[in-house]
Amino acid sequence: MDYKVLYNTQINNEFKAKGEIINFPKGTDEGYILSLVKNKVIEVIEEETIQTKSKKINGKDK
Fold first, then answer.
1. Inter-CA distances, 17 with 3, 14, 27, 34, 62, Å
2. Given 13, 16, 21, 55, which is the most exposed site by the fewest CB atoms within 10 A?
3. CA angle, corner 3, sides to 40 and 26, nearest 5?
């Protein structure tokens, strides 16, 4: 699952920029991910949103 970083921060000992799209390695503690979502550090990106953005970038949304 993909997540959008809501502000410049450090996640998993790596600095992440606001707006960056990230995903977590398999086996990452789900409690850790949920705490980041609850604290509004990251937000879940819905699959439809990713496909819509991809279409707009590729010029197919005309």
1. 12, 10, 23, 19, 30
2. 13
3. 115
